[in-house]
């Protein structure tokens, strides 16, 4: 419930929308609120039609796996909020993209050009048909457009909320109480910014500032900030969403791919890095599950979903032809322990691909043949 209330508060929607509506209306509500504050008018979107053809574009990048057995620890590098950060850094927004050539070279204005490839078909029939370049105006003195400013606020609010959960309450002589982050022997008053040394300022007690209940509420709120920031990009690429603008979604993934390739080149040059690869498994794969926090069973992915509602992944460019089923109260056993299963994504086996069975010490798993697979001797 804490997560649901947090999402409703972040997106400014009724709590019922969390259960009755999709993510798209929540994102639109958030953006519409910011546009109203900025005196922008959001035009009425054309009615969505699934029959309208629209060329696809390239989504996320999967780096070629380096087959082998690694006996030394493998470092994992991760961009913090890759797509939101990409949109912020390049100022990608409806109000910054140059749609009319006469505004593409205004004196005193700095621009960023981003190119992306256009594709037709999916899976093995996916073919590049064209390349499009978009130009984005950069704000004076680093100012950002509407979408990047929303993302900046979401990321900043999440960071602040996560820090709040670790705040301490220090009681000093005379009854003064200070709440804020504690670093070593120093606490910073969250209200005034004053820094006090708890070892020399007559501190009588130090305890957590928030109860477990309050921490759960804060955790739900920070999760809502994270999910909303990561979902905003998807709304831009969903033709059913009023915010739809394919150029923004495509330029976001293009920037993300560029950043990943830059990071790959850097770590390979400096540290000789390797890449780890992962993908989907067959629906009849058995999984160790826990339901409701108590019932532990082995079940298949198909039965885990049961009669759940499948919906097309319309808000997630790059997942055309795939369906998703949202889950609640289901956990799967992983290397990190019991991990919530938020949803299952399914798709048809692409033409030309085959299923192979992998034997492990814990059982078997059937996957598509484009995975990084090793024989018992470590050879591909």
How is this structure best described in words?
This is DNA-directed DNA polymerase. Belongs to the DNA polymerase type-B family. The protein is an alpha+beta fold and 380 residues long. The chain contains 8 helices and 18 strands. It has helices spanning 2-11, 15-20, 23-37, 82-90, 146-164, 212-236, 246-271, 301-305; strands spanning 56-57, 110-120, 127-138, 168-172, 177-180, 182-183, 186-188, 195-197, 203-208, 286-291, 295-300, 311-312, 323-326, 330-334, 337-340, 343-346, 355-360, 363-368. The strands form 6 sheets. A 4-stranded antiparallel β-sheet has the order 11-10-14-15. Strands 1-2-3 form a 3-stranded antiparallel β-sheet. Helix 4 packs across helix 7 and helix 5 (146-164) runs antiparallel to helix 6 (212-236). The longest helix is centred in the last third of the chain and has 26 residues, at 246-271. It is globular and about 75 Å long.
Give a short synopsis of this structure:
This protein has helices at 2-11, 15-20, 23-37, 82-90, 146-164, 212-236, 246-271, 301-305, and strands at residues 56-57, 110-120, 127-138, 168-172, 177-180, 182-183, 186-188, 195-197, 203-208, 286-291, 295-300, 311-312, 323-326, 330-334, 337-340, 343-346, 355-360, 363-368. It has 380 residues and is an alpha+beta fold. Strand 14 and strand 15 (337-340) form a beta hairpin.
């Amino acid at each position: 419930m804490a997560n649901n209330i947090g999402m409703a508060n972040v997106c400014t929607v009724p709590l019922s929308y969390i259960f009755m509506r999709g993510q798209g209306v929540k994102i639109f509500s958030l953006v519409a609120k910011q546009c109203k504050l900025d005196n922008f008018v959001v035009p009425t979107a054309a009615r969505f039609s699934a029959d309208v053809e629209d060329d696809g574009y390239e989504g996320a990048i999967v780096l070629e796996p380096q087959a082998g057995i690694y006996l030394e620890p493998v470092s994992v590098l991760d961009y913090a909020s890759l797509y939101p950060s990409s949109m912020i850094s390049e100022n990608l927004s409806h109000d910054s993209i140059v749609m009319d050539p006469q505004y593409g070279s205004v004196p005193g204005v700095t621009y960023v050009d981003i190119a992306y490839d256009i594709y037709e078909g999916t899976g093995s029939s996916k073919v590049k048909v064209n390349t499009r370049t978009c130009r984005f105006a950069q704000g004076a003195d680093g100012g950002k457009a509407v979408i990047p400013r929303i993302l900046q606020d979401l990321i900043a609010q999440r960071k602040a909320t996560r820090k709040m959960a670790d705040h301490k309450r220090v009681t000093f002589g005379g009854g003064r109480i200070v709440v804020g982050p504690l670093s070593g022997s120093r606490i910073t008053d969250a209200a005034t910014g004053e820094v006090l040394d708890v070892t020399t300022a007559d501190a009588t007690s130090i305890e957590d500032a928030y109860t477990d209940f309050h921490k759960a509420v804060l955790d739900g709120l920070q999760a809502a900030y994270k999910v909303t920031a990561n979902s905003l990009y998807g709304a831009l690429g969903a033709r059913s969403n009023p915010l739809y603008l394919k150029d923004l979604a495509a330029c976001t993934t293009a920037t993300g791919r560029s950043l990943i390739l830059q990071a790959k080149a850097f770590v390979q040059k400096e540290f000789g890095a390797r890449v780890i690869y992962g993908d989907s498994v067959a629906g009849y794969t058995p999984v160790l599950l826990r339901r409701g926090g108590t019932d532990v069973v082995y079940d298949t992915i198909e039965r885990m979903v049961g009669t759940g509602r499948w919906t097309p992944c319309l808000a997630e460019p790059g997942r055309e032809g795939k369906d998703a089923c949202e889950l609640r109260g289901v956990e799967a056993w992983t290397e990190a322990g019991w991990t919530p299963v938020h949803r299952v994504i399914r798709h048809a086996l692409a033409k030309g691909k085959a299923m192979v069975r992998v034997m492990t010490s814990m059982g078997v798993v059937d996957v598509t043949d484009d995975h990084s697979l090793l024989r018992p001797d470590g050879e591909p």
